[in-house]
Amino acid sequence: MLRTVPAFVAASLTEGMQLVDRRQRPAAPASADPEQQYAALVARHRSGDPAALNALMTALYPSIYRIVYRLAGPRDREQHEDLVQASLEQVCRSIDAFEGRSRVSTFVFGICHRVVARSRRYDRVRSWFRRDAEEATLPQGSAAPDDLIDRGRAVASARAALDNLDGEERSAFVLHEVEELPLEDVAAVLRCSTRTVKRRLRAAREKLLQTKPEARS
Amino acid sequence: MIDSAPIHIGGPTEEALFAWRAGRLHPEAADWIGAHLDGCSRCRTAMEHIDAVHVALEPPPEPPFLRQRQITEVRRRLQERPTRRVPWKQMKWAALCGAVAGFALVFALHPRHPSSPRDAVGFALLSRQGAADVEVGDDHAVAEAKMALPAGGWLTVAPSSRVVATWAGARVAVEGGPTGARVQLAESRALLRTLKLERGRVVLDVDPLAPGAVLAVQTGDSRVTVHGTRFLVEATPGGTSVAVDRGRVRVIGARTLDVAAGLQIIPGAAQPMALGADFAARLAALDAPLASGPTESLDVFADVADASVDVDGVEYGRAPLSLALMPGAHLVRVRATGRLPVEERVELTAGTPMLFHAELPELSSVEEPEAQPHAATTTAPVRVGAAELLSRARADVLAGAYDRAIGRLHELGHGSATKLQLERAALLEAQAERLARRPERALPLFESAARGNGPEAEQAQFLLAQTLGRDLHDPVRAAAAYEASERRFARGIFAEEAALRRGEALLAAGETDAGVEALERYLRQYPTAPHADEAHLSIASARRDRLGDCAGAVPHLRAVADGRGPRAELALIGEARCLRTLGRSNDARGVYEKYLRVQPHGRYADEARLGATGSAKLIP
Question: ipTM for the complex?
Fold first, then answer.
C-alpha cells in the first residue's frame, strides 16, 4: 500500500516542509534581541571589522528572504532568489548611508520594498512585450486541481486576493499586519505619511475580505 | 483608531479582527472579540480568510546553501564594483538626462530582472538513488533532488548509490560503484568547469562547448578535457579509467593521449582498447528523460530493501530515492521481489515537496493455501491443479502480467477448487484488476469476496474500502466501507487500521466533526497503535484549521511532540503556534525552547529562536 501523509495534514502542518536533513551549523549564536545584534554588526562594520559585513548578511538573510517573498508574492523560485540577492546587495551598498535614525530592520525592509517595487515595474513593462510567454510559464498559480482540499482552496483564494492589491497596498499590509511594524515605521519604509498608510491599510483589508462574499453579505 | 466598517451591524470592524489576530488589542477588547467569534459564523468566516491570507504569505523554506551562495556572490559583486558616492549636486542635470535615457532603453528594449549573475554555474541535482551527501564549507546536507550545489561544493555518493545532475548543458551521473564516489566542483564558471574526482566514477554527457570554454575532469593522476561528448572517468587507487562512446576526449597524465568514441583506456594499458560492455552500459544509463521547466521533488521510501521505483513508466532505480519532477499527475510504481507491487497516481504541486512511504504487502494474504483437510469437496488431482494455477497467477501478478494472471484465475473458476481457493483467487483477481488500473472491475470482486466471514472476507472488505478511497477517490463510500469492516470484523487483523482510515476518509469527505470523533475514538481504543501519531496529527490539523479549536489541538500535538522524528518536530512547532494563537505566550516560549533543545538545527530553528526570545514577528 502506498501511503502518503494525508493531504490536509501535509497542507497545514507540513506546508512548505523541506524534506532535507538540514544539519547546517548555525552561523552565530542568536543574541537576545536581533535588532541589537544588527546594530552591533553595523557598528563593527563601520569600525572596519572585515568580518562584520558577512556576519550582518548572514543575520539579515532570513528576514530579507521572508519579506521579499511577502512583498513580491509567489513567483518562480529563481525570480524569488534573484530578488533576495538584489536586496541583499543593495543593503550592503547602502549600509554606510544608514544614519541610525530608524531600526536596522526598518531600513532593510525599505530597501526590500524598493527592490520589489522596481521588479514590479520591470514585470509590468515586460508583460507588455511578453504577455503570452509569461502566461505559459507561470508556476502552478490558480490552476488548482478540482480535488484540492478546502484549506488549499482558501489559501489559493487568499493568494488571488493578495494579487489584487496594488503594490503599495500590499507593502503596507504586509509590513503592518504581518511583520507587525508600527504605522510610523511603515510610513518611513514607504516614504509617505501615516495617514496614507492607514488609507492603504483600509483599502487592503477591504479588498482582502471582500473576496470572500459570504463574509460580507 | 479603528476606522473601518464593521463586518456586520454590531460586530467588530475588519481592522479589529486583524488586530485581534495579531494580539494588538487591549485584553478586554480581545476577550469580547474572542467571545463574539464563538457565536458569530460570519466573523468566524472572515477570520478564517484572514488566517488563509497569513498562510498564503508564508515563504517557502530556504533551500540549503542558498544563503551561503548568495552571500558569496554579493561579496564578489561588491569587490568587483565597489559602491561609489556620486556627486549628484555637480552632475544632477547630466544624471537626470542619463537616467531618463537609461530608463527608456533598459525598460523598453531589454526588460529583465534585477541583478542576476549567471556566470557561476552549479550542479542542479535531478535525482538521488541510495545515499549521498553534499557539503559546502562546514555545511552538510543529504543530497536531494532540486538541490543546487555551488562551486567549491563536494558531493559524496555511497557505494551502490547514484546521483544525477545537470551542469550548465552537461548531464552528470556520479556513481558510487563498489567503493563510493567523491567529487568536487573545483571550478564552475560558464567558460571553465573542472570536476575534481577524488574516487569513484562520473559519467558525463556534454553538449558541444562554446568557443573558448573548457570542461575537465581532474583525478589524482590525470586530467580529462572534452569538447562535446559522452564519456566516463573512474578514479581508483590503481589509476584512472576513461571510456568514451561519443565524441573524443584528451587524457593528460603521465603522457597525453586522445580517446575516441568506442574506446576506453584503463590503468596499465599502453593504448586505448575497444569499449567494454560494463562501461558501455554505464554510459548508456545516462539516457534517462529530463524534466524541463520548473520541477518539484518527490521522495520515495519503501519498507523493504531493494524496492525498485518507476515513475510514469521510467525506471529510476532503487528506493530510497529523491527525484525532481514536473508538477502535475504522476504514476508511481514501487515493486520488490516477493511483494505485491504498489501503484498510485500522485498529484505533485509546485512548492510542496512530496514524501511517500511505500508499504509493499507480502503476498501471504494471497498465498496459495495448503489443502485443507476440512475443505469442501474436490479430488486430490484437481486440488493440486488449482494450487498450481493460483501459484502461477500469483507469480504473474508479481511479474506485472495482470491479464495473464486474471486468465489463469478464470480458468481456476471453471474447474473444481475448494471454497477457500476460490475466495483467494477472487482476492488475487481483484488485486490484479486494481494494479491493471481497472479499480471499477475490482469492486464487485471485493464485494463478493467480502460476503463471507473468514479472514479472506475481512481482507476483501478492507481492500474494498481502500479501492474506493484511494483508486476511485470516493471518500464517502470509503468511510462507509471502513465502518462496515470495523463493525463486522471488530477483532480482525485489519480492525485497527480500518478504524483509523475511516476517520481519515470522513475528514477527506468534509465531515470534520464525524472524522475527528472517529479518530478520537480510535485513539481511545488503540492508544499505543503504530498509527497513533498519524491520528493525533490529523485531529490536531482538523481541530485547528477547520474547527478553529486550537485548545483542542494542543493535547494531540503534545502527544506527538514527546516522541522523536519529523512528526514530533512538526507537532512541537504546531503546539507553539497554537499556544501563540491562544495568547499563551509564555507557554509558547517554553515550547520553542524545548524545540531548540531537541532540534537545535531543525527546519524551524529560526522561528523557534525568535519565539524563544519573545521578540517574534512570527508566523501564526
Answer: 0.76
Which of B255, B284, B313 is the endpoint of a domain? B284
Which residues does chain B have within 8 Å of residue A35's beta carbon, measured at their own beta carbons? 615
Burial class of residue B30 in the structure, from the number of CB atoms within 10 Å of its CB (0-12 exposed, 13-18 middle, 19+ buried)? middle
Lowest mean pLDDT among A154-163, B33-42, B113-122, B521-530: B113-122
Q: Does residue B320 have a cis bond before it (omega within 30 degrees)?
A: yes
Contacts of A105 (CB under 8 A, 6+ apart): A34, A35, A38, A63
Q: Are residues A131 and A166 in the same domain?
A: no
In a domain, B150, yes or no: yes
Tell me, yes or no, whether A78 and A162 share the same domain. Answer: no
Do B158 and B258 share a domain, yes or no?
yes
What CATH code is carried by the domain that includes residue A88? 1.10.1740.10
Indicate whether B240 and B331 sit together in one domain.
no
Residues A91, A183 within the same domain: no
Residue B540: closest CA among B507, B565, B564:
B507
Name the domain boundary from A139, A159, A179. A139
> For B130-272, where are the E strands, in sequence order?
132-136, 139-142, 148-149, 154-157, 162-167, 170-175, 181-188, 192-206, 214-218, 223-226, 230-236, 239-246, 248-252, 256-260, 263-265
**Which of B138, B299, B343 lies at the smallest CB-CB distance from A25?**
B138
Within-domain flag for B594:
no
**Half-sphere exposure of residue B614: CA atoms within 13 angstroms, side-chain side:** 7
Measured between beta carbons, which residues in chain B are less than 8 angstroms from residue A15?
55, 58, 352
Asked if A212 has any chain B CB less than 8 Å from its own CB, the reply is: yes
Task: Flag whether pLDDT at B494 surpasses 60.
Answer: yes
User: In this complex, do B60 and A115 lie within 8 Å of one another by their Cβ atoms?
Assistant: no
Q: Which residue of B has its CA nearest to A216?
A: B7
User: Domain total for chain B?
Assistant: 5
pLDDT tens digits for B18-51? Answer: 888 877 788 888 888 888 888 888 888 888 888 8
pTM of the model: 0.44
CA B421 to each of CA B350, B363, B436: distance values in angstroms, whole numbers, following the listed order: 47, 15, 22
Name the minimum distance, in Å, from the CA of B460 to any CA of chain A.
14
Which of B57, B149, B330, B606 is best to mutate for the A interface (most A CBs within 10 A)? B57
Cβ within 8 Å, pair B510-A150: yes
Radius of gyration of chain A measured on its C-alpha atoms? 20
Which residues of chain A does B46 touch, with a Cβ-Cβ cutoff of 8 Å?
209, 212, 215
Mean pLDDT over residues B416-424, rounded? 79
Model pLDDT for residues A107-146, shown as the tens digit of each residue: 999 999 999 998 888 777 666 654 443 333 333 333 333 3
Domain encompassing residue A212: 149-217
Q: Which pLDDT does position A60 carry in this prediction?
A: 92
- Per-residue confidence (pLDDT) for residue A217, from 0 to 100: 38
In a shared domain, residues B70 and B46: no
B312 φ, ψ (degrees, to nearest 5): 55, 40
CATH classification at residue B306: 2.60.40.1120
Are the Cβ atoms of B538 and A20 closer than 8 angstroms? Answer: no
CA distance, residue B93 to nearest chain A CA (Å): 23
Residues of chain A with C-beta less than 8 angstroms from the C-beta of B327: 139-140
Contact (CB<8Å) A154/B61? no
Residue B499 domain-assigned? no
Q: Do residues B273 and B313 both lie within one domain?
A: no
Question: What cell does A142 get?
Answer: 490558480
Please, which residues 16-75 of chain A have a Cβ atom closer than 8 Å to chain B? Answer: 16-26, 30, 32-35, 53-54, 57-58, 61-62, 65-66, 69-70, 74
Question: Do B209 and B143 share a domain, yes or no?
Answer: yes
Determine the pLDDT at residue A186. 92
Q: Is A84 on the interface with B (CB under 8 A)?
A: yes
Residue-wise pLDDT for B509-539, tens only, equals: 888 899 999 999 999 988 887 778 888 988 9
Cβ of B357 within 8 Å of Cβ of A18? The answer is no
